[in-house]
Amino acid sequence: MPGTLQGRVAVVTGASSGIGRATAETLAGEGANVALLARRRERLEALAEEINGGNGGKAAVYETDVTDRKALEQVADRVQGDLGRADLLVNNAGVMLLSPFADGKHEEWRQMVDVNLTAVFDTTDVFLGQLRDGGGDIINISSVAGIKAIENSSVYNATKFGVTGWSEALRMELAEESVRVTTVEPGVVLTELPDHISDPDSEAGIREIEKSAEPIQAEDIASIILYAASRPANICLNEIVVRPTKQKL
Questions:
Q1: pLDDT of 196-224, one tens digit each?
Q2: 154-174 vs 119-132: helix axis angle to the nearest 10?
Q3: 227 belongs to the catalytic site
Q4: Under CATH, to which class is 9-242 assigned?
């Protein structure tokens, strides 16, 4: 029996771990051909081998730094040649480098802006021609930090508020062209994101929330992405906020 995404071509950024990996597996399991984008080739190749050995769609590996605009342009051309027209883009790649603003961690600020905002713009831009040529979905992974400010998270908040606001404006711009834009705003999910926080107090705060909130699994977010992408063409789920039941923030 064909899957709900049979014949579709999905592009997933940050596909080497966490929500990106789970999303790629889920979409391929429903018949999509999936372009896996991330920097860690070995992880991507292992994931592609797993997907290609299953009964769903197929996967192709594109070792890519999403902050490299020229590399993204080349990948967009390769994806269309290898898999066909991309009609589902999941902008998942992101970093969460929390710290008090007064600590002045300028390089971490720039990294968050580059990955969480500029790379999302550039990835969408390079695939937009394919998406507009027949319709499809853009699903942007924001965060509850994109709708609620959190102490010691000001720059991360700024990037995620930016994604949420940009997504809504983009949805209006593309509505007449049958390109749906969905923003998913997860709360605490068990991923690698906190592992890269350099500020000990900020990391400890996230770990405490993880302990008390019974975090969501990456596969749960992937199932929500699948649900949004598989709705009838005349239905667009604009914004989806999902928290662990016990998470109050």
A1: 888 888 888 888 888 888 899 999 999 99
A2: 20
A3: no
A4: alpha beta
